[in-house]
Structures are given as structure tokens and as C-alpha cells.
């Protein structure tokens, strides 16, 4: 579904099967953020087709490497897409993160990365987004901030009334709190989390960050 000019959101709503929400950015190289599990990618394809997009995304961005966000990137790369992730997350994926995937009964696909998402500007054709390094849920986790739409593509940093878990290998409660404080200072009207519903409206976004700080920070 379209949220704003060039910004589309494809939520995963099934509660019995874990998968992530996906985000599409058009108006430059067709860019998909967090494609999800490979066997569940059909729901993204259906969403894209419903919005008139039938080509393979040119660029696939991963907020982090957990399999429920990354797995389908392998088939998209084979179809010609370029892949992007933070270099610290690539190192984590090739090291400690493999133990996590194995514990979950999964394996990371063999991937090569064409774009290293360093903190700073990410130009996608006519759009300029900000890459924000937000460790805590994983070491190289990133969020994407789109100032034009006051939108944060949040991955598993924050959710509606929740935060990303930190008990996986590579997680850190202290770093998660620092990362949340960093993004909470942005001018935001849309938070697009990796799981669950959108947080919409400046007042609701501020209330959500306040709730997170009050109830979750003491536990992190």
C-alpha cells in the first residue's frame, strides 16, 4: 500500500508464522527494504504487483541480517538485484550471527554485497535518505530516515509499543537505548517497524517513544 509519494509498505499480518514487514521506495532505482523469508516472499510480490510494480527490485536493503529480514535476498540477487547492508552487520553475519541462524534451524544464504551502508546520505535517484547506524538488536542494524516524508524505516529497533529483543548473540540493551534516543530526536510523523503496525502522526510517534522509555528502558 502507498503511504506517500514513492513510499510503499507491505505488512506481514499473519500471527502464526514469523516474517517481517517490507518497504518499497520508488522514483529512483526500485528499492526494497527487508524482503523477509524466501518461502514467504510471495506476499511481497503480490503487494508490489497490486501497486503496479512487476519488475525485480534493483536494490535490496537489509536493516539487519536476521533470517526473517534477509533470507529472500538470495533469490532476488540471483534475479539481478544488488544488495546493501552495513559493513558491521556483514561481519556479524559471517561470524557470530551464523550461530544464531543455526540455533534457529536456518542457514544464511550465500550473498555478496554491492553497497555498504555507511552512516550518512543514501541517494536513490531523486530521493535522499539518511542511513542511521542503530546497534542494539544486532551490531550493524540500521534505520533509514526519509526527511521529506518525516518517515523512519525502523527495522527491529522499535515497534508500536515495543522494542527489538537484545538476547540474541550480538544484542546489547545499552546500545539499543542509545539508538532509540538517537532516532527519537528526529522530526517524525511515520515509524515503519519491521513487525507490527505503523505508528502514524507526530503526537502518536512521540507517545510511543515516551512509552518505550518509561516501560522498556528499565528492562534493557
Automatic annotation (TrEMBL):
GO terms for molecular function: hydrolase activity; metal ion binding. It comes from Desulfoferula mesophila. SUPFAM superfamilies: Metallo-hydrolase/oxidoreductase (SSF56281). Its cofactor is Zn(2+). InterPro entries: MBL_Glyoxalase_II (IPR051453), Metallo-B-lactamas (IPR001279), RibonucZ/Hydroxyglut_hydro (IPR036866). Signal peptide: none annotated. Residues 19-195 form the Metallo-beta-lactamase domain. Keywords: Hydrolase, Metal-binding, Zinc. Gene3D superfamilies: Ribonuclease Z/Hydroxyacylglutathione hydrolase-like (3.60.15.10). This is Metallo-beta-lactamase domain-containing protein.
Amino acid at each position: 500500500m502507498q503511504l506517500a509519494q514513492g513510499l510503499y509498505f507491505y505488512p506481514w499480518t499473519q500471527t502464526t508464522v514469523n516474517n517481517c514487514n517490507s518497504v518499497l521506495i520508488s522514483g529512483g532505482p526500485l528499492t526494497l527494504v527487508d524482503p523477509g523469508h524466501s518461502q514467504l516472499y510471495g506476499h511481497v510480490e503480490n503487494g508490489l504487483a497490486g501497486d503496479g510494480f512487476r519488475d525485480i527490485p534493483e536494490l535490496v536493503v537489509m536493516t539487519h541480517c536476521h533470517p526473517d529480514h534477509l533470507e529472500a535476498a538470495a533469490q532476488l540477487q540471483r534475479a539481478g538485484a544488488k544488495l546493501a547492508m552495513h559493513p558491521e552487520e556483514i561481519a556479524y553475519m559471517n561470524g557470530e550471527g551464523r550461530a544464531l541462524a543455526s540455533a534457529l534451524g536456518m542457514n544464511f544464504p550465500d550473498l555478496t554485497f554491492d553497497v555498504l551502508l555507511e552512516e550518512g546520505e543514501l541517494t536513490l535517484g531523486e530521493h535522499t535518505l539518511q542511513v542511521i547506524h542503530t546497534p542494539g538488536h544486532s551490531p550493524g542494524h540500521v534505520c533509514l530516515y526519509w526527511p521529506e516524508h518525516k518517515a523512519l524505516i525502523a527495522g527491529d529497533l522499535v515497534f508500536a509499543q515495543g522494542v527489538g529483543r537484545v538476547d540474541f548473540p550480538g544484542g546489547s540493551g545499552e546500545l539499543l537505548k542509545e539508538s532509540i534516543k538517537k532516532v527519537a530526536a528526529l522530526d517524525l510523523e511515520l515509524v515503519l517497524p519491521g513487525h507490527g503496525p505503523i505508528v502514524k502522526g507526530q503526537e502518536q510517534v512521540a507517545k510511543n517513544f515516551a512509552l518505550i522509555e518509561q516501560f522498556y528502558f528499565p528492562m534493557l
